[in-house]
Amino acid sequence: MSFETVGTGNYIVKAGDCLSSIAEAHGHIWETLWEHPANAELRRVRGSPDVLMPGDRVTVPPLRPKSVACQTGRLHTFRRKGVPTRVQLQLMKGDQPRANIPYELCAGREVLQGHTDVDGWVEQWVKPGIQEATLFVEGEEYVLHLGHLPPVESNAGARARLANMGYLDETRASSTEEDFLTALESFQNDEGLPPTAMLDAATRERLAAVHGC
């Protein structure tokens, strides 16, 4: 993965980036970037370090050297903060969670196995910077595009969340704007919102809450 900086300490976000991958590439943990005073506006606008928009700018401070006193002639263990990165997703069948089922997650060279919890959640830790993983569950295969979820404030972000929740089939080449508006209205109906098919503030907020981010 290539990382391009513009000016001193400014990084321009590209598709597939999240704060964890940016921090990893520059030798930081994601909290250092997210909590940096120069990134206050980014925190306010995006609300989550996992949901950035291509074109966003992230201030990356210079690395600060750290020294630790150690006794010579002995083995010492150092643990690096912020690695790996957590991946979470919920598996549903209709409105019921797919609970306690085995799965396999292939992320880079890692093959991670486990069972969903009682609410259907998959939770695993992967290396920062991985942009694609494949989930195998009960004979089904799902390709996951990690770091590619646009902010809910954008139409692309709303479409992606509706697709993830089964309201919209974005895999169809014939998917239209009308399909998106129909999906949006169906979501509003299900959530007790006015079925306006308009992406207003209340709908965006509910989309983020139900989707999980």
UniProtKB/TrEMBL annotation:
Signal peptide from the UniProt entry: none
Gene3D superfamilies reported for this sequence: LysM domain (3.10.350.10)
Question: Organism's domain of life?
Answer: Bacteria
Q: Which SUPFAM superfamilies match?
A: PGBD-like
Name of this chain's protein:
LysM peptidoglycan-binding domain-containing protein
